[in-house]
Amino acid sequence: MKGATHSVLRRIISLAAPPTFPGDHERTRQAGLLMPLIAMFIPVIIISVFALIFVFPAKIPSAVVIGVILVVEITSYSLMKRGHVMAACLVFTAATGIYITGVVILSGGMSGANISHYVALVVFVRLLFGTRASLIASGAILIVLSVIIALGMYGIVFPRIFPVPAIPSLFMFLFSLMIALTTVHVAVKRLDEAVALGLDEIRKRERMMDTLAERERKERELTARLTALNALINELARKPSFDDFIRHVIDGGKNVLGFPRISVWLFTDDTTAMTGTFGIDEAGAVRDERDKRVAMLSEDLPSRMLREGKSVHAADTALRDDTGSAVGKGENAVAPIIDGGRIIGAMCIDNLLTGTPFNEHDLSTLTLYAANVGHLYAIKRAEAALHSYADELVHSNQELKEFVSIVSHDLKEPLRTASSFALLFQKRFESLVDDKAQTYIRAIVEEADRMQKLVDALVSYARTGNRGQAFTAVDLNDIVASVITGMRQRIDESSTGISIDTLPVIQGDAVQLSQLFQNLIDNALKFRSREPLAIALSAAREDDGWHVTVRDNGIGFDQSQADSIFSVFRRLVSREYSGTGIGLAICKKVAVRHGGRIWATSSSEGSIFHIQFPFAENQVLHASR
After folding, report:
1. Nearest-angstrom CA–CA distance, 14 and 8
2. Do the strands 326-339 and 312-320 form a parallel or antiparallel pair, or are they unpaired?
3. How far is residue 561 CA from its own chain's centroid?
4. Number of H helices, E strands in the chain
5. Residue 29 and residue 193 in contact, taking contact as beta carbons nearer than 8 Å
6. Which of 51, 254, 366, 516 could form a disulfide bond with 590, CB atoms 3.0-4.6 angstroms apart?
7. CA 582, CA 372: separation in Å to the nearest integer?
């Protein structure tokens, strides 16, 4: 019996429970306001109808009116349960307004109680639909009341179907009471919501302040770490040797960046093993691991890092020593050391000594540190190679100096001896040999002399660019004037006309620049045609430097051989033209040493030699000073 009663109560409660609409707060709120009124009035109206029919038989008209209200209430309830909340609210409020007006008219006119029913209705409309709807309802009620007052003033009296003690008055009282209680409930609920919202806002602000404080703390910590990392990288860049560099990488990682245990390993070329450098041992001391070699296992973090090409981290993994043996469990992180886009090693850290978990800044700092170490490692390798090349260059230059000394003395000496004996033989035995023998002797002397000139030219070429003077401001006008003065006799004898435009001032070696222009003018004098020779020197300023040209109207050359004429001993003409074939090669060395270049063009009208000198601020020198 008790269980059946509970079941009936639960059924009644479920029937009276307002529906909810997830995601639609407004409909849920309206249903929560209207459903209690409908659930309360339906049983009250049913009781009222039975009472009017069976207890007060004379009040059958009242029973009919209240029966109509019952139908309206049931209609509102049905609409509510089907989810048509707005329609239910409109039906209920409209029917209530009509009913209140009927009560006012049929109970003998307006009274304070009846007016209070209208006020309750306006308050209810305000709760259901908002301020605008309540203003409209207030206007309609004022119009209705004005009409009732006007009818009363003209003497129209309605029958008192509802006497004051009748049940409709009780109904209206309950309606007003429910509206008042609902209003108080809504006000209290909104106050609770406001208080809860305020408290939630306070808690939210507190959490936000805590978050901001934590973020600022992390940002300060990260800024301090990045500052320390920058200083550490600058210090690492100054380490002279590779071993000092790697050892300081370990010291800095521990003492500056706060990594309790750190090591650097380099991969073999086939990436099947790692070779050690330096690291922190299980006691926290720096350990020399350069003689260690550990095989790479596919399940280890370095292998995973190599496969993924980025830093990796494991929260609960086996921690190993320099032999690869497990020494405990904890967090481990590995970052790639990259040289020229290729992963050449791994920087490893773990928390074996502290047990403290790594944070995001630890991992990002490790990645950044490893990247910088890889960059510096590449620089150190390049510096080592550069030092090696410099040592080789010094050795090569020394050998070249010795070779030049040998050539200039030991090789020329036999030539001078051969030439001297040939001349002595010609002088002493001139009357004893025929003309053919005299021709042979002259050929020996001439070839020995030519060989000496070749040796001198070769020595000059070898010394160009290796024994130059320091660069200073050089006026090319003065250089060319000095060259022409030294060659004046040859110029006058060949009736050569020379025109010189204004030439620039450049940074250079005056002696070598004199060699350059002397060889170019000498080249023009040697390879002139039958026409009177004309040589023109000019210069033009271009975007990337000065463009100087030496133009002549000589015999020219085959343009397809334009590159080869600057090679050593390269001659494009027969022996009838004197020369060693080294002059233009010297011109090229001088131009290159001054950070420029030289090239030539030729046509039927002669040759043009072009020399480009960079501006001083862009000048890159290509030989020792």
Report:
1. 10
2. antiparallel
3. 50
4. 16, 14
5. no
6. 516
7. 49
Which two structure tokens, joined as six digits, stand for 578? 């004197």
SS3 605: coil
> How, if at all, do strands 497-500 and 534-542 pair?
parallel
Nearest-angstrom CA–CA distance, 78 and 299: 68
| CA separation for the pair 346, 301 (Å, rounded) | 10
Two tokens, residue 23: 């995601």
Instruction: Give the tokens for residue 58.
Output: 């004379």
Distance CA 620, CA 605 (A): 35
Three-state DSSP class for residue 599: strand
Angstrom distance (rounded) from CA 310 to CA 346: 10
pLDDT 10s digits, 306-351:
888 888 888 877 787 767 677 788 888 899 998 878 888 888 888 8
- For β-strands 273-280 and 261-267, DSSP reports them as antiparallel
SS (H, E, C) 189-224: HHHHHHHHHHHHHHHHHHHHHHHHHHHHHHHHHHHH
Rounded distance, CA 517 to CA 512, Å? 9
Which runs of consecutive H residues, i.e. helices, occur in 527-564? none
* Angle subtended by helix axes 242-255 and 360-405, to nearest 10: 160
Q: What are phi and psi of 334, to 5 degrees?
A: -135, 130
Q: Is residue 582 a contact partner of residue 462, using CB atoms and an 8 Å limit?
A: no
Element of type H or E holding 399: helix 360-405
Rounded to an integer, what is the distance from CA 514 to the centroid of its chain? 52
Distance CA 587, CA 522 (A): 12
Return d(Cα 498, Cα 517) in angstroms, integer: 13
DSSP state of 356: P
Cβ-proximal residues to 557 (8 Å cutoff; 6+ apart), any chain: 565, 572, 600, 602, 607
Instruction: With H, G, I as helix, E, B as strand and everything else as coil, classify residue 1.
Output: coil
For residue range 501-511, list pLDDT tens digits in order. 989 999 888 88
How many angstroms separate the CA atoms of 463 and 461, rounded? 5
Instruction: Dump pLDDT digits (tens) for 72-90.
Output: 777 877 787 777 878 877 8
Cα distance between residue 531 and residue 419, in whole Å? 37
Question: How many residues does the structure list for the chain?
Answer: 625
> Is residue 58 helix, strand or coil?
helix
Q: Which two tokens stand for residue 71?
A: 């139908």
Q: Which residues contact 236 (CB under 8 A, 6 or more apart)?
A: 245, 248, 249, 252, 372, 373, 376
φ/ψ of residue 279, rounded to 5: -165, 175
- The Cα-based distances of 300 to 286, 313, 318 in angstroms read 23, 11, 9
**For residue 624, which of 499, 464, 500, 483 has the smallest C-alpha distance?**
464
Are the C-beta atoms of 541 and 503 separated by less than 8 Å? no
Q: What is the dihedral of CA 192, 196, 198, 203, to 10 degrees?
A: 170
Chain position carrying tokens 């960046």? 257
- Asked if residues 344 and 338 have their Cβ atoms less than 8 Å apart, the reply is yes
- Residue type at 474? V
437's tokens: 């023998």
